[in-house]
Structure formats: C-alpha cells, structure tokens
C-alpha cells in the first residue's frame, strides 16, 4: 500500500534519511521507533511530499508518487497528522474537521462556512468526531479545549480527508498515561483496512498497537520486524538505553 525504496535525504552535511526501504501492506499497523533526531519526522515529510528526497522513491498503492506534490498524494488517499499543533485555534472543533473534510471534495477553496452545511461534509464530520471521541467538544473553540483534546483533533483532521493511509507523528506526545490508553482504544476502532504508520515514543502503546515495528537510528532502518522480535533485541536496548527497560 505504501512503499519506499532506498529513500535518501541530507540537509547539508547531515545525512538524515539513509537509504530507507519500507513496505506496508493494506491495513497494516506499523510503529516507527527511534531516538530524538533519528529522522522519523523527516521520513514522514518525504512520504507525504513536503520534502523531496535526494534519491529513492515513494510508492502509493503500487504507483510511483515521488514526483507528485502533497495535494495530489493526499487525493490518492495519503494523510498525516503532525507532531506539533497545526489546528485553527479561533475555530471550533467542528469547523476544523469540516475544513479538512472539504479538502477531498474540492470545496475547501470556497468559503469555509459553506462547507459545514454540505450534507456529505456534515456526515464525515459526524463520523470522524465519533471515531476520535470528539462529539462532546464539537462546538468548543480549539483555544478552549485541553491539550489532549487538541491531540485527538489533530488525528481527526487527518482522518477527515478520508485517507487510505494515515501517518501519525507522535499522536500522544505530551499527554498523560490515561489518554494514551484512550488512544489505544481509538486506534483499535479505526477501520481495519486503513493502513497506519505511527511514530510513537510510548512503548506500551507502540507494542499494543503494532503489527510490525521499524526502528530508525541516525536515519537508517536498524530493525524491521515483529514486535516480539523487537522486544528481545539487544540493539534496540542499546539505542534506547534505560527507557527500553520501562516498556
Ligand atoms: N529542514 C531541516 N533543515 C535542516 N535540518 C533538519 C531539517 N529537518 C530536520 N533536520 C535535522 O534532521 C535530523 C532529524 O530530524 P527529525 O525531525 O526528522 O527527527 P525525529 O526523529 O522526528 O526527532 P524527534 O523524536 O525529536 O521528533 C535532526 O538532526 C534535525 O535537526
Ligand atoms: Mg519528530
């Protein structure tokens, strides 16, 4: 469903992505682990087209999309959520979802207040709000909801474009253990044919949701396999030092 072949990217002298080859099957849930600065977010930027690789290719549903801009990849069903807040703080939760839902319909360029009244958009908003547990917050302004709710909305906005492949960059960063647990349930409830690639620092959550695990270190894939094999790997323990022991 999503594949990279020998993807490589440098910023000046820093080799941030080193010949990364990955392959995700339809419906697969893969977690990307790796220390700070390992190149995880950069890999996402390359996958969605926010960055162009120096070499290598990205394939979506069998098609080489390396030369396609972000919007064209999005129209083919690739969506992402961000590590940092990208929401419209002055709008309500519902309006943020509606704007995202309007993107694939081509109506996003029109007045956003029109979007909300369109039946197909209302339907998407209602469905996504249910999926990401945001129904009680729909009419609240983003600036007024908690940090945890904003993280959920960040995922909701990505889901509202109706993706086939969803990339999530640290969806639980900065939230407490209780929300991490809630997030696990949320992920489990997503459609089983949705392909998920998740960057996650919370080991419990990572192992609970992953079908497969990829570990990046200094921009390189140093592990690619089943969670059980990842757990026992000395290489990974070394990379994560103490933090791995807590998992
Ligand atoms: N646009 C850029 N220009 C120059 N260097 C960059 C750029 N983007 C990322 N880098 C560098 O590339 C390296 C990898 O960054 P990246 O954000 O991909 O790491 P990460 O694995 O997502 O880290 P974290 O866990 O902290 O989010 C870092 O050294 C970073 O400083
Ligand atoms: Mg990152």
TrEMBL record:
Name the InterPro entries for this protein.
AAA+_ATPase, ABC_AA/LPS_Transport, ABC_transporter-like_ATP-bd, P-loop_NTPase
For this record, an example GO cellular component is:
plasma membrane
Top-level taxonomic group: Bacteria
Q: Which UniProt keywords apply?
A: ATP-binding, Nucleotide-binding, Transport
A molecular function GO annotation = ATP hydrolysis activity
Q: Which Pfam families match?
A: ABC_tran (PF00005)
Q: Where is the ABC transporter domain?
A: 2-243
Q: What is this protein called?
A: ABC transporter ATP-binding protein
């Amino acid at each position: 469903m999503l594949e990279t072949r020998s993807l490589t990217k440098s910023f000046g002298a820093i080799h941030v992505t080193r010949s990364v080859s990955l392959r995700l099957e339809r419906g697969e849930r893969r977690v990307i682990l790796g220390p700070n600065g390992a190149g995880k977010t950069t890999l996402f930027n390359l996958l969605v087209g926010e960055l162009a690789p120096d070499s290598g290719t990205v394939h979506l549903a069998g098609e080489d999309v390396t030369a396609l801009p972000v919007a064209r990849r999005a129209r083919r069903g690739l969506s992402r959520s961000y590590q940092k807040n990208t929401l419209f703080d002055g709008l309500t939760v519902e309006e943020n979802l509606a704007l995202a839902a309007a993107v694939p319909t081509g109506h996003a360029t029109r007045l956003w207040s029109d979007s909300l009244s369109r039946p197909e958009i209302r339907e998407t908003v209602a469905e996504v709000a249910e999926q990401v547990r945001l129904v009680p917050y729909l009419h609240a302004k983003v600036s007024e909801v908690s940090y945890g709710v904003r993280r959920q909305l960040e995922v909701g906005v990505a889901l509202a474009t109706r993706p086939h492949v969803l990339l999530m960059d640290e969806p639980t960063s900065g939230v407490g253990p209780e929300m991490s647990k809630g997030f696990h349930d949320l992920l489990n409830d997503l459609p089983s044919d949705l392909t998920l690639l998740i960057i996650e620092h919370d080991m419990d959550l990572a192992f609970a949701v992953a079908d497969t695990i990829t570990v990046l270190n200094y921009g390189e894939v140093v592990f690619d396999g089943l969670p059980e094999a990842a757990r026992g790997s000395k290489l990974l323990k070394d990379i994560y030092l103490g933090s791995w022991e807590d998992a």
